[in-house]
Amino acid sequence: MAKIWVESYGCSASSADAEMISGIILNGGHTLASSSRDSDLNLIVTCSVKDATANKMVNRIKRLKSKPLVVAGCLAKSEPKTVERFSSNASLMGPNSIGKTLQIINHAISGRRTVELEDTDVTKTGLPKVRLNPVVGIVEIASGCMSDCTFCQTKLAKGDLKSYRVGDIVRQVTEEVNDGCKEIWLTSTDNGCYGLDIGTTLPRLVEQVSEIPKDFMVRVGMMNPMYMPRIKDDLIKSFESDKVYKFLHVPVQSGSDQVLHDMKRGHTEAMFRDLVKKFRRKFEKFTISTDIIVGFPTETEEDFEKTLVLLKETRPDVVNLSRYSKRPGTKAAEMAQIDVAEVKRRSKIVFDLMNKITTSNNKQWIGWQGQVLFNEQTDEQIRGRNFAYKSVFVDDIVKVGQKKQVRITSVTNHGLYGIIVS
Known about the structure:
Rossmann fold; pyruvate-formate lyase- activating enzyme; CATH 2.40.50.140; 3 domains; six-stranded parallel sheet; 19 strands; 34% helix; globular
């Protein structure tokens, strides 16, 4: 028996992988350490989506390598040479190799380095897990994607789309809810293309999950715009369920069709506009989240201005803003790069614009009263979510997992603030 420290970075799929790895560790007779200081072995689930993130992973690897180390996740798969450069003795495990977790750990403890980067036949449903948040069940519905974006390493790490069966997912969600989860995250590399390889669709999955006769909420994770036209009408219908958060994460990345073409995104800015328009027409209050990359190698000043226009006209509630950084193995890394200072300038303009838009959007919620599920405790305060997945904060004492009636009294660009009214 060994004490193992597990930490994870990146998207919700990485968090789900860390939960399953922790469950496999316990089932295998080991224990989970409370910190890396008192562990016999360290395991890190990595992310490599951005240059800054990859640098952070390298720093963590350097800190953790004084003990037997397993590097799992996207960086291990897409940049094994980088990991080996900073920790030559680290064992490597790919995002779709977690079925080999115990074998890799047991070998590492005994001093044997193992490299398992190939995909196994393990479906990530029905595996044991240790939740990072006791009231949130993260359920992976697929692995990999169908895209081939020129800036992204994810395809290199996770490969082609492999959707999991609807029945297996529904059973997993049922188990999560029966175990006390109040919120379910349906997550994958790209939810939009879910089911294309097995003859089903995301709306069908959402509908079947919503029919589970329990009290819980569903957050549908990120979906790329290119796959949305074929499912948008059915998806809108599936979102009519009171159990589904009125929240959509659709990364547009740029307001320029030329840049989107160069990125090989497979959609146009008009597709994004259409989605925003249709969902907001159907639902009076609906949260739109998107991603923007500034400074892509072929982005001209005119292209950048088109992105600003798109943001001003669609007014998304959340923007995950990234400065372009070249990632090894991607096609965009081979292109001529824009000056770093110019990329920073464009990033600052988008950042300031989004703060204004977000604050303005949030002001529309002042005076709203309704049910809030409190789902996350931070060091400073507890956070809840209303039906549109808006962040809600209160000064009152509330426990994670509780639902309360809240009236919104003030807002910032970070969320809504209110008081409990019953």
